[in-house]
Batch of 2 targets.
Target 1
Amino acid sequence: MTRAGTIALGAVTLLALILLALMPSAHAQDAARLAAGEAAWNKAGCLQCHGSAGEGGSGGEFPAGPSLRTTQLNRVMLVDTIGCGRPGTQMPGWLDGAYTEISCYGLPKGPPPAGLDLTPVLSGDEVAALVDYMMAKMIGK
Ligand code: HEC
């Protein structure tokens, strides 16, 4: 083999080894992201209304939220619905600063609409991790 060929082969091998070394950390990051999403789910107490696995609440002490396993909402709509809540229903908004500091549903910033419970316990990052978690573990499952 030529010298250049040997060097090229060495470079390819090195690259493959670097990629192999990076793979476990990518998995670890995914796992950390899902754990952060699950922590946000627990912190907000979504399960009180939507059931422990998002199967839908049974009512009683808490309002009966619909099944999240069968939701048709896409990622953007999930982020908006969870962060900003659904005015006129018992679905609260969870994002810290929703409406006043962070625009909701494309509206200009301002006071939150009437008929909405705000429980601003989640950051934007937590809402995004929560949606990742729901898409990986709940929706369509
Ligand atoms: C106090 C009860 C309650 C809690 C707590 C609650 N929800 Fe809801 N949620 C509802 C109700 C009721 C609806 C249905 C609103 C409607 O009539 O459109 C709803 C709707 C939704 C929807 C829209 C579903 C669809 O397909 O249209 C999503 C997504 C959702 N909730 C996610 C969550 C998440 C995630 C949490 C926790 C951060 C949470 N909810 C906490 C009551 C609740």
Note: Residues 63 and 82 are 16 Å apart (CA to CA).
Target 2
Amino acid sequence: MWYTARPVKAMDSTTPTYSGTADYIAAPDLMQTVDVAVALGRPLLIKGEPGTGKTMLAQSIAHALAKPLIVWNIKSTTKAQDGLYVYDTVQRLYDGQFGDHDVCDIAAYIKLGKLGEAFSHPERVVLLIDEIDKADLEFPNDLLWELDQMEFFIPETRQTVRAGQRPIVVITSNAEKELPDAFLRRCVFHFIEFPDPATMRRIVRVHHPDLEDGLLDSALESFYRLREVQGLQKKPSTSELIDWVQALAIAGVEPARISARMPFLGVLLKKDKDVEAARRDMAGGRTGRGT
Ligand SMILES: Nc1ncnc2c1ncn2[C@@H]1O[C@H](COP(=O)(O)OP(=O)(O)OP(=O)(O)O)[C@@H](O)[C@H]1O
Ligand SMILES: [Mg+2]
């Protein structure tokens, strides 16, 4: 069973609640899901288009709940064991031959990974496992026990590393690979919907509080129109919009001229075919808008 050892804590007044932060705009349903995951003590699995704030959510949760943040960036070569601990046998061998260290102390050669750090931290931490879908398919399954029990055993030292306080685990995925069902069953899931224009306006304002209203209006209108151009392989996202409005502001582009000229298109679109499609659209071709 998932929670035989630690009963699920009901949400009550002692459960810290998350309501975004000054630098991160969270939709109400996202805030609620964060609260549920924290209260249940289950990993929060976040999916959404690239650039929609998945990674930053973990930073925001840590900030809002005043918890330390530990980040485990997953790569294609990352193994579950890397997150637990590494036994540095090479260093021990080296010290045995050339050093004056006491090589009998095996614990000195055990280096905790990010999961180990999170479990052994004196405070309750937020642990971000970023881009879990980059690793191989076995990776999530290999962590089931550890994320369930929040402990692991180090045979070399016969020690158990056990979380004093269950970390708040945030896992992000760009859905490059499907995650195993056994893993999904243990998570609370949330898909970050692409922000509507009103929310996007607030997000951009967080990053550029002094931006002129006219420029922002015009940039937003062109941005959402661009996202609807038919056949785009990679639609521009929040992070690209944030960069684009900054470029527009620095260059002092007239708001009225943005939609016709779409300056600095390369900040928004990163594929030549997409740039071509956008240029065709601007030249009076079909926009392919849904309605
Ligand atoms: N809701 C938001 N509030 C404030 N800033 C946001 C929000 N969403 C995205 N951003 C900004 O967009 C940028 C990208 O965010 P982030 O890196 O968290 O996206 P991501 O979903 O993790 O992207 P990827 O899938 O490429 O890793 C950051 O600069 C962040 O500040
Ligand atoms: Mg990210």
Note: The chain has a mean pLDDT of 90.
